[in-house]
Amino acid sequence: MQLQYCFETINKSCEKNCWPNSIRIPMYVFMVSTILATIAGNLAVIISIAHFKQLHTPTNYLILSMAIVDFLLGCLVMPYSMVRSVENCWYFGDMFCKIHTGTDIMLSTASIFHLSFISVDRYYAVCDPLRYKTKINKFTVLVMILTSWVIPAIFAFGMIFLELNMKGSEVIFYDEIFCVGGCFVFFSETSGIIASMLSFFFPGFVMICIYGKIYIIARRQARLIKDATIQIQFQANFVAKQHISRCRERKAAKTLGTIMGVFLICWSPFFFSTAISPFTNYIIPSIVIDAFVWVGYLNSTFNPMVYAFFYTWFRRALKMILFGKVFQTDSSRTVLYLE
């Protein structure tokens, strides 16, 4: 098969993928379906939390902000990545390549920053409930949300536009990897380690430790509540109410722990390859790296599905959205779950 290039009249143009339609069409179908599911699912989460007053809680504000991150990833990043992945060509210019890459890194990093703060929120809710409302208030949540957006933005766009991601490996990049019509997510040894540590390994380790602590304390609380039920009837009624509250908090922690687990599973291949590829002379094929990127993108698709599976309130809210009941008078005051 004759080689085709992204720009036939330009020297050192990238090679274009010459896959048959039997491969290209399923790839486009899969990627378009993933994009639409990501946008629709996260839009449903955004509308639900923004519309229903009962859902205006600190934890849900963090979930809302994370859903906006995933929604923007589906709208602004994934469509262009789809064309790059299938065609192996970038037709949108060098400047937009930098903007796209910076936005991609920023939103991916912002997701795990949100998850880190959500784990802190759950820690206080389950492990220190008496001080939860004083520790996790609206101001605290606002600081968490701003931190989750601002630091990843400074890190991602600063690194890409100042070309810090290539520092120390410019010769390798321009001699062996660069070609006209490509848009590469390239990291040197140092920048690959720093990016992986900041965006994935360090916050992921912190979250695992926090959720481990939550799990241990939640089990201890469950045993104490079980032992307390042998007391007199008045105390039993009080314990029952406490039990319902604690069960709700533990379920929320379990749900968000599942979301964290999905994130770690989806993004582990990409960040591990990012960290080790510079040390192995970039022997990992670009098509494999690209596949890891899409596995990571799937995390943004799965999050709303986790909400739908675990949260009754989300299923009820989704039903009201689909049937247009959110346009009814006072629908925002609908009780989606019992306090």
UniProtKB/TrEMBL annotation:
Give the organism's phylogenetic lineage.
Eukaryota, Metazoa, Chordata, Craniata, Vertebrata
Could you give one GO CC term from the UniProt record?
A: endoplasmic reticulum membrane
Membrane topology of this protein: Multi-pass membrane protein
Q: Which SMART domains does this chain map to?
A: 7TM_GPCR_Srsx
Q: Which organism is it from?
A: Pyxicephalus adspersus
Sorted alphabetically, the keyword list is: Cell membrane, Disulfide bond, Endoplasmic reticulum, G-protein coupled receptor, Glycoprotein, Membrane, Receptor, Transducer, Transmembrane, Transmembrane helix
Q: What top-level branch of life does the organism fall under?
A: Eukaryota
Tell me where it resides: Cell membrane; Endoplasmic reticulum membrane
InterPro entries of this UniProt entry?
A: GPCR_Rhodpsn, GPCR_Rhodpsn_7TM, TAAR, TAAR1, TAAR_fam
* Protein's name according to its UniProt entry: Trace amine-associated receptor 1
